[in-house]
Amino acid sequence: MFGLESGWFGMFVFHGGALLGGCALDWLFGDPRWLPHPVRLMGRMIAWLEGLLRPRFSGRERAAGLLLAALMCCFWTVVPGLLLAALGGVALYLPGRAGAYFLLAAESLMCYQLLAAKDLCAESMKVCRSMEKGDVEEARRSVSMIVGRDTAPLDGSGILRAAVETVAENASDGVIAPMLYIALLGPVGGYLYKAVNTMDSMVGYKNDRYRELGRAAAKLDDLVNLVPSRLTGLLFCACAALLPGFDGRGALKVFCRDRFNHASPNSAQSEAACAGALGLRLAGDAWYFGTLCSKPYIGDDRRAIEAADVRRINRLMFGAQLLFLALWAVVLALWAAALIL
Predict the structure, then answer these.
(1) Can you state the angle between helices 226-242 and 156-171, rounded to 10 degrees?
(2) Structural element, H or E, at residue 21
(3) Which Pfam families does the entry mention (predicted)?
(4) pTM here?
(5) All structural domains of the chain with their residue ranges
(6) Up-side HSE of residue 338: CA atoms within 13 Å toward CB?
């Protein structure tokens, strides 16, 4: 009914179809280690640029950080854009609607590599299963693969809290945020977002090594996550109200009260909704690189954390993902109705 020639509406419908295809591929296949992944390439590129720029900008690390951020953003906007343009050129030579389907499949594959729901669930569930078997050391090894904090000081409850917190936070960074940018800007927007987010995760630290070099990346990450982090928190609240086994009122209460209990303006948004939905107290002091960092608590200590809470936060994450897709479909349906009327 609406083809590629349908202007803005057709473009958003097309991106929405590619997003749905990307989500389906992620749910089915996750992140196979043998498959080249753009985020790993981004990480190697950031490390290479840091090694290139740091000695050339000695004493001017902030300028080096600005240049690093500019180069990463340009590269990961231009290259995916050129790839899509080339694929679009190929699609023009295919008969009938085959070109549109070819381009949709290509965009879906590009979107798939930007989403991390299946992998996040799989890695966090390793922690859950190890704790259910009583194997705290195996759970510690598993959680060390998905968190940035030091895991040696953690007891069983601390390990579970770390797993729940990382799913809650990465539900924004690894799922809802790329989905939002894909829906609005297509795969190019998703790749640009992931480039910024990966920069922040690698150089956006407030320590002596990265305070100046990583400043631009950290500020840019705060900016691009301003809307997605809050959207994720609200989706968590809605899912907590709709799904059995969660506290919808508690999610909204703690979200409104504790969503700024973090040095970052965005990091506590989804964690606060998660803490309220599960009736848990999260965050608090944690060790990073051998240094104890003082952090405020998020949520109320209504009950002891248990391994099943890792399953619950994954249900909440997938629920938020499905709700996002449903809401985007509603937006497009209303737009279509307005065009028809």
Answers:
(1) 110
(2) helix 7-29
(3) CobD_Cbib
(4) 0.92
(5) 8-340
(6) 7
